[in-house]
Amino acid sequence: MEPSGRRWSKRCTLIAAVFVILGTASVVLVWPAVAAYLCPSCYGLERVTDSLFVEPAMSVEDRRMLQETVARAAGQVASFYGSFDRQPILLACASEDCDRKLGGRGARANTYGTTFIRLSPRGLNQTILAHEFSHVELHSRIGQFRLLTRAIPAWFDEGLAVIVSDDARYLGPGTMSATRCLLEPQGNLPSSPFQWGHAAGKTPGLYAQAACRVMRWLEENGGKTGLRDAILQVAEGKRRLP
Asked: What is the rounded distance in angstroms from the CA atom of residue 242 to the CA atom of residue 235?
């Protein structure tokens, strides 16, 4: 008869294995983009560089153009913030079918912390990349703890990304001033990522409102220099934004 201690050890190993299997299945079903980040080849993605994985259907020329676009977007963000040192992993789809497999539900792109970005076929341009890179840089500067405790509300994060990316869909022409506002902000804007995600698809112009409110804040608080100082204070736990 097998000793009880050994039987218990086997049971614990089996239980642990079951939890690992269930956990892996949950990631694949609920967060396919996370699963693709952990194993790009499992989703058919091919490595182009250490930080870029693409759908095999993407042509050699399109891959080259995407790399150039990524470099321009990174430079745009570095110009605004003063630096852009954290290069996230990019999971780029050339087809809607690929995007759906990665969990895309209509959004051009999604940023996951400061680690990786899922790009749909409609997100392979400088504006969208600069928008997502702005999130990465801001989140990296304030740190995960400040991000989770909402030291910066979602509307400020999103509005700032619109400004950094110079998105003509939500900003008028011009330089760093509120004259670029296309829509005046109406009341309280969503402060949590969940609230923002729920409202953004239902409220036309929400990004434009957020960008306008952030633009006005920049005008009143020293522009880019004032923003960088404020971000540092947020990271040190000395203030919240706005």
From this structure: 13
Per-residue burial over 216-236, b = 16 or more CB atoms within 10 Å of its CB, e = otherwise:
bbbeeeeeeeebbebbeebbe
d(C-alpha 226, C-alpha 231), whole Å: 9
**83/96 Cα distance (integer angstroms):** 33
State phi, psi for 34 to the nearest 5 degrees. -65, -45
For tokens 């050699």, the residue is: 60
Over residues 209-239, the pLDDT tens digits come to: 999 999 999 999 999 999 999 999 999 999 9
pTM: 0.88
Buried residues in 107-126 as b, exposed as e (16+ CB within 10 A): bbbbbbebebbbbbbebbbb
How much is the average pLDDT of 108-137?
Answer: 97
pLDDT tens string 171-222: 999 988 999 999 999 899 999 999 999 999 889 899 999 999 999 999 999 9
> Helices in the chain by DSSP H: which ranges?
4-30, 32-38, 60-81, 96-101, 126-142, 144-148, 154-165, 193-200, 206-220, 223-235
Q: State the sign of the Cα–Cα–Cα–Cα dihedral 110, 197, 136, 140.
A: negative
Topology at the third CATH level for domain 31-141:
Zincin-like (3.30.2010)
Enumerate the domain spans of the chain. 31-141, 143-242
**Residues 131, 119 contacting (CB under 8 angstroms):** no
Q: Could you give the dihedral angle defined by the CA atoms of residues 192, 198, 199 and 204, in that order, rounded to the nearest 10 degrees? A: 140
Q: Please name which of 81, 228, 239 lies closest in space to residue 152, comparing C-alpha atoms.
A: 239
